[in-house]
Specification:
30% of the residues lie in helices and 30% in strands. A seven-stranded antiparallel beta sheet has the order 1-2-3-7-6-5-4. The longest helix has 20 residues, at 2-21. The radius of gyration is 19 Å and the shape is globular. By secondary structure, it is an alpha+beta fold. The protein is built from five helices and seven strands. Residues 5-22 have low confidence and may be disordered.
Length: 150
C-alpha cells in the first residue's frame, strides 16, 4: 500500500515542482495613463515612471522575475516628447547597438508586439537609458518601447 501511494504521490509532486518553476510573463495592459495610475504601486516598478507621459495610452508590459527583465510599450499624443526626454538629466542618450545588445540578452522572451530589430534602425528612433531601462522613442509613430534589464 505504501509503495502504491509513493508511486502516485511522488510523480504528482515532481510535476507540480516543474509546473511551478516554468516562468510565464506577468502581463499588464492599460488603456490610458489614468487607468495606469490606479494600479498597485508594486506593479509600477516594471515601468520607467520618470519618463512616462501623462498622455500615454495603449500601455503594455510583460515582465519576468528570473532573469529580471520586462518589455513595455506605450503610445503618446505629444509632439515634443523626445525634446522633453532630451532635457531630463537622468536620461543618457545611447545608440541603436546598445539597445539591440540589451534586447538580444532576452531574445526568447520578446513579445510579438515589441519592436523588431529591423524596426530599430528607423531614422525617427531615439534611444535612451534610465538606470536599467532602455528606451526607443519614435516621434513620428508616437510610440515608446522599453526594456528593463540587469
Amino acid at each position: 500500500m505504501k509503495n502504491r501511494i509513493r508511486r502516485i504521490v511522488f510523480p504528482v509532486i515532481v510535476c507540480l515542482l516543474f509546473w511551478g518553476c516554468s516562468e510565464k510573463a506577468y502581463k499588464q495592459e492599460y488603456k490610458t495613463y489614468k487607468e495606469y495610475l490606479g494600479i498597485n504601486p508594486r506593479n509600477k516598478s516594471w515601468f520607467p515612471e520618470n519618463v512616462f507621459p501623462t498622455d500615454a495610452y495603449n500601455i503594455l508590459n510583460n515582465s519576468y522575475s528570473d532573469p529580471l527583465c520586462a518589455f513595455g510599450k506605450f503610445e503618446f499624443h505629444r509632439n515634443n516628447y523626445t525634446e522633453l526626454l532630451n532635457g531630463d538629466t537622468n536620461l543618457v542618450v545611447i545608440d541603436c547597438n546598445t539597445f539591440e545588445r540589451t534586447l538580444s540578452k532576452h531574445q526568447k522572451r520578446i513579445p510579438k508586439w515589441f519592436i523588431s530589430t529591423s524596426e530599430t534602425h528607423d531614422v525617427n528612433n531615439h534611444f535612451f537609458q534610465l538606470d536599467r531601462f532602455y528606451l526607443v522613442v519614435n516621434d513620428v509613430r508616437k510610440t515608446t518601447h522599453f526594456i528593463l534589464s540587469n
